Design the sequence.
């Protein structure tokens, strides 16, 4: 975990606010697929399992590689340069930066409950690091949730509705792309030989969970 | 059990005699064996006759043993009856209960409970067809380590080899060779062999679409949990088409009587299924291949005579084999007619001349089977779907591919290679070439014969095919000379088409309906084209526009007076997907019912559900529509919700609004150029409503923009406009103004937005955010604050209204949405805070004439039309600005937004109701159509009952509407008329006194 809190974050809070117990606040979060835990557990089997990995820190980055101020220093990672590339922790254990377009990236790191770094503050630090360069770093941690599909038939489940070539020769561990699962846009990230992260936007989480569970029935 | 299989040959065949399988046909139980098709089981039981023909009701029989079948269609009874399945490809499985169809199916009205799904796979080499060519190609490609997908429509591998199991291939019997190759393929880790899988579409980028039958062949509970059919999307770097060829019938009188069967199909029934279609057979052929059927029949104990339409007879090898077997062969002869109606009782045989006319008298030959071979047509459908070139090969008497399309390869009978070792050699070479082109290399094992040698040998080995397009009958006319059996079209129909002036094969097709049936011309197309060569002159064919598949490129047809045109002068009809019929249910896959489309829900959705909300679809979103209490209808619920918002406090889930963060030194300039009003000078901490127009000056979207920092803005869009507004910003930023320092990111789903509305909303917000100064002075209208709620959750609170009331919007990260909503409900409980949905939102905003883009606008409405000239800057330029100087945009009779008040205060006009001048109706009573057009002035865009006004009202776009305020117009709807008064658009709180509480 290389995320560190920036030293002097500018916070635009108009009112004076007394310190709060962050752990108590974090306990108030509800993840987009939270109510589907039991459905996912029941739908999982030896060959295909589905669970939510909630509350990962996510920062949307717009930046031009090479002209990003001290962004990469602050990240501790170079920005990925081509489609599918993930800089950093390709297996999802730690900080990773996913390539989404030539100037569009998604930094993904652990839950604040684990790292102790608030996503807002972290995104703010990255924005600071961009300085006057063209670009953006925005906290989008709640924008998508992360579903983890694993098992020997996980790839088959995905192949039912993903048109991309998921063969390891083409889509190795540590690759991630923005694509469609059926009719729904997701980020698809291979974090292990048989483990995939599927990241739909929050409002699509229920649909994507049900869609994946439907595809998994055959392999239960 | 086998006793009733009177036509089952004692030995041989790829059937499992230890597994009898019962079959119910039209209520009668028959028995076949595992490995049979429904058709082969019928043949084994001595039944060739199937349903009658579609239009003429003529008895018909099993013609073929494959997908080209035009007669033997069945309806399979089940949970969902399925129609028009060819009995010739329908695998015999326990429990089959079928009805023979008379050429037309019946769509079962019950829903199909079966599941269908899809799979997307990628391959280095995809091979279509698993005959000798396809198997050799797949094996060669697999040996290189390439990813190979082999698609075979049959339930067995082998293709033509299934009908010649004893033929020697690479030194072993064909059946054994197929097993060897199969074992090799199955052992290769990167190979996928799909049987029962028909590649039915071929598209750019080597994208093949196939349908796999997955469950129909399984017994009982084995089917559970397995989708019935699966659509395979196969994208391959290289494709090998080894799709084989179809045999053509011969067009003679009464050639549709049951017992007339394609010769190669006779061979298939005898050798693959050990089922004897006839005991006394006549084989009539225009080429060497028909002799195989004669040998098969003879070996099975039938009596056979061969009629070879060629004067010279078969090529030497075939002729001497016939002689050695003791086959009786007559050359220069053909069948000229059939005796029998419901079954062949005899064939009329005669010598024929070069035109196919009888020479001398016909002789009646007693027989119960006539096996016919009119030559072969390469199965070029997938090749031709990709616009692969074809040409007429006069030696092979067929349309053959000229060259494979890019990144594709052709092997075997699809190229006109009609002998096994030639197919195998071509397949081997194609597999190696395909793998190599995909980046995998290995040596070809084709040592017996090279692919080049195959090309040289192709014509010699096939023998000459006589192009016998029609055989004259004993009596004149062609009314029973069937060309397309499925569509009941005869040679007489072709003549009628040409007599009516049709020349192009496409016109003849549509004039007659030939080739429009289930078999898509596999039986009749080339014979039709051949017939056209007999009746069209060179002048006729020169008049045919170029561009048909297989049509000669140069000016077609011989000179006037020269020999007849060839089929190449005419060309083929266009080949399109699907190659064979595919159920719509299969194409839909799992996108049915609840999975049809994504239902987007907000983080607060569980609360809405728990509190009885009814939902409205807004795009993919499920938004609460209203929250009826027990006994309430929509009107009562909405009135209650409106009252709460106007008199107390109410709250709404506004999460679905689009949200975009914009950053850059030029962000203000960028927004200035895209919104009609100015944002560059908006102070940090303030918000402003903005309207965006297209270059034509018409309203495109609207929303509120916050300035978060000097270089950061936060824009909201309409719910439905979120994606297109982001694309709009990206388009202008990337393509027109790349010099501006500005970037955008969608944050729609990062934030949950809760609107707290009403005179008492300030008290609720004060409880929610105790550290915030919520006083009128401390928190002004169109300002926002970053704060931390009493719960500790950080929030951004805005003072924005979409109702005219004092109102706040609380924005929190999505995962806190439900908690904060519940907190609002609790904080407002003392004030009887009321949740409200989209219906109440619409009423409240309409009372204030706040337009909804897409409801009160339709892409033809300017901000000025909406009465919002104040939002159109006159001091800066922006997208759409130039259009406002156009005369059309300044015209006095433009439709303008006004309100309309029905004189009947309880009448709610339907949205869309037309508005006309009172005098314009004339004598029109609303019955039927008016005698002349009545000029319309506009239409109602929104219509509600207003709880605040105690009456119904609407918004409307009316020509010169603002000049008509006070006038009475007629609203016309559903055959009724109602008087309405035109009024100022804003009906409630015109002074805007309520927004500050």
Sequence:
């Amino acid at each position: 975990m290389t995320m560190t809190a920036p030293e002097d974050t500018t916070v635009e809070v108009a009112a004076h606010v007394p310190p709060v117990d962050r752990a108590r606040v974090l306990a108030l979060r509800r993840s987009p697929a939270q109510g589907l835990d039991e459905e996912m557990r029941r739908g999982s089997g030896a060959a295909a399992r589905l669970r939510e990995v909630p509350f990962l820190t996510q920062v949307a980055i717009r930046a031009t590689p090479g002209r990003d101020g001290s962004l990469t220093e602050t990240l501790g990672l170079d920005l990925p340069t081509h489609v599918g590339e993930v800089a950093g922790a390709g297996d999802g254990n730690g900080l990773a930066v996913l390539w989404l377009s030539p100037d569009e990236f998604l930094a993904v790191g652990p839950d604040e409950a684990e790292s102790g770094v608030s996503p807002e503050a972290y995104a703010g630090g990255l924005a600071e690091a961009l300085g006057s360069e063209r670009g953006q770093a925005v906290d989008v941690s709640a924008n998508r949730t992360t579903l983890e599909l694993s098992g020997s038939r996980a790839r088959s489940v995905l192949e039912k509705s993903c048109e991309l070539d998921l063969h390891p020769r083409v889509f190795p561990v540590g690759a991630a792309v923005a694509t469609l699962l059926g009719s729904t846009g997701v980020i698809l990230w291979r974090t292990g030989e048989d483990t995939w992260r599927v990241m739909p936007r929050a409002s699509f989480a229920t649909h994507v969970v049900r869609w994946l569970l439907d595809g998994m029935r055959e392999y239960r | 059990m086998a006793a009733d299989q009177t036509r089952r040959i004692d030995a041989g065949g790829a059937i499992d005699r230890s597994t009898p399988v019962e079959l119910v046909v039209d209520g009668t139980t028959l028995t076949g064996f595992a490995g049979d098709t429904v058709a082969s089981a019928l043949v084994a039981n001595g039944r060739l006759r199937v349903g009658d023909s579609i239009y003429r009701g003529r008895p018909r029989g099993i013609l073929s043993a494959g997908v080209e079948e035009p007669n033997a269609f069945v309806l399979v009874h089940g949970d969902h009856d399925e129609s028009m399945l060819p009995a010739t490809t329908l695998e015999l499985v326990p429990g089959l209960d079928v009805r023979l169809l008379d050429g037309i199916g019946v769509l079962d009205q019950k829903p199909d409970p079966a599941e269908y799904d899809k799979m997307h796979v990628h391959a280095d080499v995809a091979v279509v067809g698993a005959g000798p060519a396809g198997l050799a190609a797949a094996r060669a490609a697999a040996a290189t380590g390439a990813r190979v997908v082999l698609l075979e429509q049959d339930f067995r591998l082998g293709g033509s080899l299934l009908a010649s199991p004893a033929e020697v291939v690479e030194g072993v019997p064909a059946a054994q060779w197929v097993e060897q190759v199969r074992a090799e393929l199955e052992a290769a880790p990167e190979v996928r062999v799909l049987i029962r899988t028909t590649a039915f579409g071929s598209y750019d980028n080597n994208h093949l679409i196939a349908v796999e039958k997955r469950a129909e062949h399984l017994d009982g509970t084995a089917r559970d949990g397995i989708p019935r059919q699966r659509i395979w999307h196969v994208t391959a770097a290289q494709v090998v088409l080894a799709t084989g060829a179809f045999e053509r019938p011969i067009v003679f009188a009464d050639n549709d009587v049951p017992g007339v069967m394609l010769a190669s199909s006779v061979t298939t029934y005898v050798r693959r299924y050990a089922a004897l279609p006839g005991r006394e057979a006549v084989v009539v052929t225009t080429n060497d291949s028909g002799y195989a059927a004669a040998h098969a029949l003879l070996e099975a104990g039938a009596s056979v005579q061969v009629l070879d339409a060629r004067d010279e007879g078969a090529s030497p090898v075939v002729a001497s084999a016939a002689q050695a077997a003791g086959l009786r062969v007559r050359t220069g002869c053909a069948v000229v007619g059939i005796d029998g109606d419901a079954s062949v009782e005899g064939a009329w045989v005669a010598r024929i001349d070069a035109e196919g006319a009888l020479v001398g008298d016909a002789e009646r030959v007693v027989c119960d089977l006539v096996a016919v071979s009119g030559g072969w047509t390469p199965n070029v459908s997938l090749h031709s779907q990709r616009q692969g070139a074809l040409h007429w090969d006069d030696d092979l008497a067929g349309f053959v591919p000229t060259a494979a399309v890019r990144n594709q390869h052709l092997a075997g009978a699809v190229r006109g290679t009609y002998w096994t070792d030639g197919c195998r050699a071509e397949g081997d070479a194609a597999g190696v070439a395909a793998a190599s082109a995909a980046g995998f290399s290995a040596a070809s094992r084709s040592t017996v014969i090279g692919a080049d040698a195959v090309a040289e040998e192709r014509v010699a080995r096939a023998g000459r095919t006589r192009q016998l397009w029609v055989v004259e009958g004993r009596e004149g006319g062609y009314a029973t000379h069937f060309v397309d059996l499925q569509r009941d079209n005869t040679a007489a129909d072709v003549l009628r088409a040409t007599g009516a002036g049709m020349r192009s094969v496409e016109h003849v097709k549509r004039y007659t309906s030939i080739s429009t049936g289930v078999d898509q011309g596999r039986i009749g197309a080339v014979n039709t084209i051949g017939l056209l060569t007999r009746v069209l002159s060179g002048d006729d064919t020169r008049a045919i526009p170029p561009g048909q598949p297989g049509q000669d490129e140069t000016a077609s047809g011989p000179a006037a007076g020269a020999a007849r045109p060839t089929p190449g002068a005419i060309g083929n009809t266009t080949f399109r997907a699907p190659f064979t019929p595919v159920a719509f249910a299969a194409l839909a896959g799992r996108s049915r019912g609840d999975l049809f489309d994504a239902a987007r829900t907000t983080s607060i959705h569980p609360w809405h559900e728990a509190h009885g909300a009814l939902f409205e679809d807004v795009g993919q979103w499920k938004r609460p529509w209203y929250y009826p209490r027990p006994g309430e209808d929509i009107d009562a619920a909405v009135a209650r919700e409106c009252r709460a918002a106007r008199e107390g406090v109410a709250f709404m889930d506004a999460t679905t609004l689009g949200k975009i963060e914009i950053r850059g030194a030029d962000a203000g300039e960028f927004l200035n150029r895209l919104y009609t009003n100015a944002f560059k000078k908006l102070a940090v901490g303030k918000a402003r409503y903005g309207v965006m127009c297209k270059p034509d000056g018409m309203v495109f979207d609207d929303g509120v923009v916050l300035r978060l920092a000097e270089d950061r803005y936060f824009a909201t869009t309409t719910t439905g406009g979120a994606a297109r507004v982001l694309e709009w910003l990206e388009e202008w930023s990337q393509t027109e103004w790349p010099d501006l320092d500005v970037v955008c990111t969608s944050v729609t789903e990062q934030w949950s937005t809760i609107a707290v509305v009403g005179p008492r909303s300030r008290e609720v917000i004060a409880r929610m955010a105790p550290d915030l100064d919520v006083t009128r002075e401390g928190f002004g209208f169109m300002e926002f604050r970053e704060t931390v709620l009493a719960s500790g959750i950080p929030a951004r609170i805005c003072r924005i209204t979409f109702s005219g009331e004092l109102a706040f919007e609380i924005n929190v990260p999505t995962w806190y949405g439900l908690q904060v909503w519940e907190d609002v409900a609790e904080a407002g409980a003392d004030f009887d805070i009321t949740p409200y949905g989209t219906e109440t939102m619409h009423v409240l905003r309409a009372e204030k004439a706040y337009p909804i883009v897409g409801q009160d606008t339709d892409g033809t409405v300017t901000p000025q039309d909406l009465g919002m000239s104040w939002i159109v800057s006159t001091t800066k330029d922006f997208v759409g600005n130039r259009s406002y100087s156009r005369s059309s945009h300044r015209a006095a009779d433009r439709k303008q937004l006004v309100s309309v008040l029905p004189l009947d205060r309880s009448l709610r006009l339907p949205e869309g109701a037309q508005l006309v001048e009172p005098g314009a109706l004339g004598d029109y009573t609303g019955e039927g159509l008016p005698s002349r057009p009545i000029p319309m002035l506009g239409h109602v865009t929104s219509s509600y009952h207003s709880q605040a006004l105690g009456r119904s009202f609407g918004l409307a776009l009316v020509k010169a509407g603002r000049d008509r305020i006070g006038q009475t117009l007629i609203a016309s709807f559903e055959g009724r008329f109602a008087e309405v008064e035109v009024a100022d658009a804003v009906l409630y709180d015109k002074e805007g006194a309520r927004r500050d509480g």
